[in-house]
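BUG: 3D viewer hangs when loading the predicted structure for this chain

Environment: internal workstation, default settings.
Expected: structure renders.
Actual: progress bar stalls at 90%.

Input used:
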Amino acid sequence: MSFRSMTVSTVLVAILLAAMTAAARETVETPHFLFVHNGGASGLAERLSEIAEARRNYIRYMVGLEREDNEKVEVRIAVDEDEMQQMTGASGRVEKWIAGLTFRGADLIVMSARGSEYFKASDTFVHELAHLYLDKVVGDRFVPRWFHEGFAMLAASEDAGERMHSILAATATGSLIPLDELEHGFPERQPAVSLAYAQSMFFIRFLQRASGSGGVRELIDDLEAGMPFEAAFRSTWKATPEEMFERFEDSFSRFDSVIAFLTSATLLWGLMVGIFVFVYFRKKSMARKKMELWELEEELQRERIMRAMGDYLDVGSDDGTGRNRPEEIH
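Structure tokens produced before the viewer hung:
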């Protein structure tokens, strides 16, 4: 996630807050990165330092940035939510689904050591690095949020399998999020957050295939040259983003989408809940019927007893022979 909307003063506050505690932290350094952590993320910091330079070169090539030897990107690794809040200078808790933040213009990335249910920690680092370098190229020019996130996910080579289910289920039910709703921000609640990321990821990959793999770089070059996003998009794909999104939606097999929907975790959970409720009420109904049957049997038993007692009394009082009458005493 890129903090494009943060003011300069907010960024400075975040930098100062972290600087006050940086002395007590451990660091791992490479030619262009400084990984800062509190000791609890030492293993992750070491692993990231091993891949950082190669991923930097790859992403800078993707966006067309020239060699820059004096650059130093600081990567702060938080081990829990409190540290995440402190390192970002946020006034409140950072949403749990946010695994990383990029501070535009500050060469600063703050990321969670735990990742999230959507991002592994190593993917988060590369994802945020892609935001950082895309921002460096486009500057203040408007770039839709869906493009920013889709590009970052493309650069991080994130696993498509985990997100395929989400988008196939959405296409089966006609519930893809309209592109214009993802221009300036993403939803803040599930399952819309997951779907927004999945859409962005697969849409960018679709655009890459449609242009012979060079479209995204061509678009970024046009943006760097000063062309507005809409014009740059039209120049690359000879269509508007909305028109390409319609083609993207049509590219999904209806059969695959229905299967994905029918096997989705949400639907399966709903079916399980439905079965549980059905069994519960069925058992409750059977128990009620059983009680009614017991009550009926008890009523019949009482009636049989009363009938038997009545027969006994009738026989004892008069049987027509006089044998049961009391003897007379003389």
